[in-house]
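Researcher: I need the complex structure. Ligand is magnesium ion. Inputs:
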Amino acid sequence: MTESGIALPHRRITLLGATGSIGASTLDVIARHPDRYSAFALTANRDAEGLARLCLRHSPRYAVMADEGAAKELRRLLREASCPTEALGGAQALRDAARDPETDVVMAAIVGAAGLEPALAAARAGKTILLANKEALVMAGPLFMRAVREGGARLLPVDSEHNAIFQSLPAGYSGDPARSGVRGILLTASGGPFRTTPREALASVTPEEACAHPKWRMGRKISVDSATMMNKGLEVIEAHWLFGVPAENIQVVVHPQSVVHSLVQYVDGSVLAELGQPDMRAPIAQALAYPERIASGVGPLDLFEIAALHFERPDFDRFPCLGLAYRALEAGGGAPAALNAANEVAVQRFLERRIGFTDIARVIESVMERLPTPRLDSLDDALAADAAARRMAERIVEEV
Ligand code: NAD
Ligand code: MG
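Model: Output:
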């Protein structure tokens, strides 16, 4: 009920990627408002035990494992615990969870290209999509935005920078910056754990060092992306598709405190920003309740404690992934899908200690040089560009 006594609708949520970092933050926010939100379906890749624990706590109707073998294990665990949640497995079940008529809101929080198809299913089914899975937009930006339009879906960004931009744009923003007097976007970046590390030292950094982010606790893949600054590159592409702003009007600003989550510049010289503590529950709650506001568990911002805000230019020489992302966006077609796929392979191999940190950018650059810009007219094109870049990246990893 609101203060005026009007009953607010109850929302049943499909949470894609429930066992991850965004999944945990989303469940934390939902659990604070049991009258307003409940879990309809929770999904994960292979961690049956992790998903079973979440089922016992949040009682969703369905629990879906992408991996069929893990689904069997989940079924057994739920039976043993007398949990009534129905366990399903496989890619089709993931897509079905995202488009089920009984769910209103889909949180897309799978990491990587694997999240594209279920997110697209939600778009085609006209759901409200809370998008954390930036790789889906990087891989298939124009196709995804078209599916949202044609499906009558609503797309709300959860990535903290894009959520800040969304909040700093006029309500009902049309996707045309000129019509709203938008000059450009300032996309803030923490700079990651190696912001001040000299170039020579970068070659020998370890996966543990790369994953120790100074401001955010996140999954391993996005943590490495933050360390290479590919995360910011992917976010430039994400911002381009979400807000219709050309790449040359999206400027990356390093801001180590991660308090200003991004800014919008207007033609009259005004600059609007959203500030807050670096805690993903804030953008998740904003997107979940939009256009209302709900408590997220994030405390107030203490400006006296922060005292000063710092900004610096990104270093494109020490962080070549940033430039590679701009280049892919400029090349167009399936180039961003190839960039993303090559990055996923390189990050995985870095985490396995098969290649060094600075090899990540080298692998991606070689893939982009050797692969002619793929076309992007359909989902099949996006998947083909992804697959070709993965094959090429694996071959280059062998050469490193
Ligand atoms: P994570 O690694 O912690 O969790 C990933 C989730 O995806 C897990 O539930 C996992 O089971 C699932 N998953 C992985 N591979 C899968 C597959 N092949 N099929 C189906 N499910 C699969 O990652 P995260 O940090 O929560 O990030 C999730 C997404 O949100 C990423 O796209 C990331 O870029 C984005 N994001 C994260 C943060 C953050 O603070 N963690 C912030 C902004 C954006
Ligand atoms: Mg972000």
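Model: Summary of the prediction. The chain has three domains: 11-157, 158-316, 332-400.
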